[in-house]
Amino acid sequence: MNPGDRVRVDRADRTFEGVALPSSTDDHLVVKLEGGYNVGVDRDAAEVEVLAEDVYEIDGRDSVGSNGDADDDTSEIAFDDDLPTITLVSTGGTIASTVDYRTGAVTAQFDAEDVLRAVPDLAGRANYRGRVVANILSENMEPPLWQELATVVHEEIEAGADGVVVMHGTDTMQYSASALSFMLETPVPIVFTGSQRSADRPSSDNVMNAVCAVEAAKSDCAEVLVCMHGSESDDVCALHRGTRVRKNHTSRRDAFETVGAEPLGTVDYETETVDFRRGYQERDARDLALANDLEADVELLKFTPGMDPAFLDVVEGSAGLILEGTGLGHVHTDLIPRLEELVADGTTVVMTSQCLEGRVCDRVYDTGRDLLEAGVLEAGDTLPGTAKVKLMWALENSDDVAEAMQTSLAGELQERSVPWE
Amino acid sequence: MNPGDRVRVDRADRTFEGVALPSSTDDHLVVKLEGGYNVGVDRDAAEVEVLAEDVYEIDGRDSVGSNGDADDDTSEIAFDDDLPTITLVSTGGTIASTVDYRTGAVTAQFDAEDVLRAVPDLAGRANYRGRVVANILSENMEPPLWQELATVVHEEIEAGADGVVVMHGTDTMQYSASALSFMLETPVPIVFTGSQRSADRPSSDNVMNAVCAVEAAKSDCAEVLVCMHGSESDDVCALHRGTRVRKNHTSRRDAFETVGAEPLGTVDYETETVDFRRGYQERDARDLALANDLEADVELLKFTPGMDPAFLDVVEGSAGLILEGTGLGHVHTDLIPRLEELVADGTTVVMTSQCLEGRVCDRVYDTGRDLLEAGVLEAGDTLPGTAKVKLMWALENSDDVAEAMQTSLAGELQERSVPWE
């Protein structure tokens, strides 16, 4: 059996028929099924019958090498002078994973080149470069990896990439997209994409999301974007600004939403058209710049009735604290003197709202005014998670952190809406 | 000047013209303006001109006494045998507040009888009883007050109330509504309402919300409901199940939404019609029962990338912990051994998702399975805040807490939706 052959694979009580694809491991074979999705099957436990040889040309397969290692994780595949160059950066997650049939669940396994192999539909749209920054489930993403990711993306743009696609797990994609939004000034698009359903599922979104992300990375919008399904259908992906996006559903393919605004744009899967509905940073309008220092010692606390004040003791001596308060941005008034101590002690304390929509406004009620007097800053309508990432960044990169937290640096704080009436 | 007179009030550079209402304080006079909303004006600083005497009959004003005190905070007003009896329970918040013109902001000031005075539109719809449980801003609401509130509501229903309206600040209304949902089995409606805009604002929602809440309290739905504006217009209020509702906008009047479902029903302000779209507990279907013991030592922690594991040390020895995890319900895998220790140590640990929509499903990915093996329970699609309240309740009132947290007790955990495909 060779890549490109039409095969039938029997494993336990399941049968798959499709085209064999190159696999990144010796343990598994990968079969592209009729519906366009791919399955990985444990080679030892499978019986394979070749139905027809060489029915499908696997683009660039000759130039696809083995898994890259730390010293050699960049390669170019089938270079075409007429096409833009897009770098695929892999961090892991469902989009870069295949099915582990032993346990019935999903483990991360692919690097960027494997993704390209697994998504033949990407071929012909661009010249690709592949970089692997991590191979983790996104719940394990940590601030130092945001820094590394920003460095790699910076290197790739410096090396001439016309756009970057970051393959990322969906669980913490919004945090990483925020981090890169603050760390990089970019003359080209940086597009995060991922997958809510793994490649072995008929409803997998990995092919369409990857294809649309590449189209967005070729577009004129030089911002950090998140590109994920825009509806339950396979028609359009939505393009969200990295600092305003939120995973709002655990499992739906269109789980990602722009909070407090319409998405910045859409990518039509059928026509490959990228449309923008609002203003954006245009390609080449800014020079490339990297500022990826982060203050790690910043925490986020969500206030709920009955919260143990001892959580604030953990923050003592920390550089920063994001509070996710109730409503317009409140906490129990008993906590305010403690917050005042933290501020006096040098901790930058910033208020956001667990409402998600709307802006904190601490001047209306007594509690809010007391919070302001205690030195707590207002983050407007900045999302709590984005505010945490921003504060980590601002503490290392801003001369005036208070001013920075109350100013929009990367679209995270929207223009004041008409207040109240 | 007497209540019912048409008056013009000049204060500083503002002039109000309307009908004088009874005021609960000597310091302020209250004027009902043409638009239907009321303003409170500092009496000392105001010049008052009576334009016409006795133009408006204030229902029940003769029987309205002074502010109730702790020993005498229940009274009945203008009893009509043909009308149902509704108890108004006041806890404070914007709906029970008037404007403090000295500071330009809002301070809580009214008790339930004051609300009735301030909202003459409530007259003629029911016989009212008034109870004051607290006069706090809702960010200061605490679990012991939920217990007291449940006790008072129980007393009122036992005494013959055909429905109860709870006036509550909007910031933590969802938590209190959840608490009463678990604490009370009720044969009559218990309807929370509040106000996003104070009575002095042309856009105030206090009159319509109070009127619709009274209509809902007269309805056939014997559940704990939240009744707030259903749109930006003054046309309908939405009725939300107390355990599925969330304040999703900081300032909009229609800030409250049912998460993961349509609202249970609506109240049409014009026609006074209460409509239900889904099944509900019918009036008198259940006997009245109170179970308001709570375990206070339950915390909620929201996981974000880079979270300090020291927050888990605060939880050591606690009875319960609600985790607000990423996506399907994940945290950094480094935290799992620590969670396992907490569980072994007797802490009930329950996973929810910060996505808000959708259910946690810890069986799909390795991290999730590891969490389950560590003894972490899944809360399905229970909202994180509701899960905290429920765990506080279940630890005192359930023989099998794990079973309780994975079963719907008051509509908080919805039927499993079609998984995945």
Automatic annotation (TrEMBL), chains A, B:
Q: What is this protein called?
A: Glutamyl-tRNA(Gln) amidotransferase subunit D
* Organism of derivation: Natrarchaeobaculum aegyptiacum
Taxonomy, superkingdom: Archaea
The chain positions of domain Asparaginase/glutaminase C-terminal read 297-404
**Keywords carried by this UniProt record:** ATP-binding, Ligase, Nucleotide-binding, Protein biosynthesis, Transferase
Q: Which CDD domains match?
A: GatD (cd08962)
Instruction: Give the protein family.
Output: Belongs to the asparaginase 1 family. GatD subfamily.
**Keyword Signal applies:** no
Subunit structure of this chain's protein: Heterodimer of GatD and GatE.
Q: Which EC class is the enzyme in?
A: ligase
Q: Name one GO biological process term.
A: translation
Q: Which GO terms describe its molecular function?
A: asparaginase activity; ATP binding; glutaminyl-tRNA synthase (glutamine-hydrolyzing) activity; transferase activity
E.C. number(s) listed in UniProt: 6.3.5.-
Task: Give the matching PANTHER family.
Answer: 60 KDA LYSOPHOSPHOLIPASE, L-ASPARAGINASE
